[in-house]
Design a protein that fits this description.
Length: 295
């Protein structure tokens, strides 16, 4: 008995799938190259009334000045701005919002100016200028990276009649717009030298007859116990780190400021102010407000 052939299965109509949409892979973010580092002779922006007015009074060359309308004809600035204009500076009267953009929300107080980069003194020129004063005092900043601190130190040093400041090139802040703003115009009158190697600079100062004091909360000698009767250099370190061990080896004495409270240390710029004021009191009794005036 022969098998009957099986009927063929009819082809089923297969449903056609819609074409797949191509995968959209998220685009990788394009990394922008960082802006080029400013060169030593790149123009800088000074802002703040004290900083700008001091720069104008000292005759520092400037390219452009931005000022709000209420300050343009202010008696403190009017003549100085006209003199700068006669020397080729462009005076722009702008809104406070425009100054906010220029100064990146810095506290500009209504005026800003574009000046050439700070012209550092050489150590040799600084020593020559300091030699014109009897028993000069210099400040050396070791590893200060906070521009507000450095500016405050410069302001204090100039206000108390010191002869100059020395900073290292590496691992420390230089003279920037923020430093100039914090210095409140003192940079126009107090020379700042920038050295490649601070320790070598301290040895050069020793050969020139300076005595090197390092400020540290662990110093062996209390500050009031020292008689400052020779050319002096105060070395101050950054907060937290302090003066590096290598730099401490180049100090003649490590000095401590006596503290009566529980706070173990002081802000670097505050410590500098106390130390420099102690020198001022010793060398000029008129500075010592604790002494009774002669009757």
């Amino acid at each position: 008995m022969t098998e009957k052939p099986r009927p063929r299965k009819k082809n089923r109509l297969t449903a056609t799938r819609p074409p797949r949409s191509p995968r959209h892979t998220p685009a990788k973010p394009v990394r922008k190259s960082p802006p080029p580092a400013p060169t030593e002779d790149a123009p800088e922006l000074l802002y703040g009334r004290h900083a700008v007015l001091s720069a104008l009074e000292s005759g520092r060359p400037c390219n452009r000045i931005w000022v709000i309308p209420s300050l343009r004809y202010d008696p403190r600035f009017h003549q100085r701005l006209n003199e700068a204009k006669q020397q080729g500076a462009v005076i722009d009267t702008v809104t406070p919002e425009r100054l906010d953009q220029l100064c990146q929300r810095g506290r500009h107080q209504g005026i800003a100016m574009q000046v050439a980069a700070y012209n550092y003194w050489s150590l040799e020129d600084l020593l020559a200028k300091a030699a014109t004063v009897n028993q000069p005092v210099l400040l050396a900043a070791d590893g200060i990276t906070d521009p507000q601190n450095l500016g405050a130190m410069i302001r204090t040093a100039e206000a108390l009649g010191m002869q100059g400041v020395i900073i290292p090139q590496r691992r420390a802040v230089g003279i920037t717009a923020t430093v100039a703003k914090a210095a409140a115009g003192a940079l126009e009158y107090l020379p700042v030298a920038r050295v490649v190697n601070l320790n070598q600079a301290l040895e050069t100062l020793k050969q020139a007859g300076y005595w090197i004091y390092g400020l540290s909360e662990r110093g062996a000698v209390p500050l009031p116990k020292i008689t400052f009767d020779r050319p002096t250099v105060f070395v101050v370190g950054s907060e937290g780190e302090g003066i590096s061990l290598q730099t401490q080896k180049h100090c003649d004495e490590m000095v401590a400021i006596p503290l009566a409270g529980r706070t173990p240390s002081l802000n670097a710029s505050v410590a500098v102010g106390i130390a420099l004021y102690e020198i001022s009191c010793q060398r000029s009794p008129a500075w010592d407000l604790t002494q009774e005036s002669p009757t």
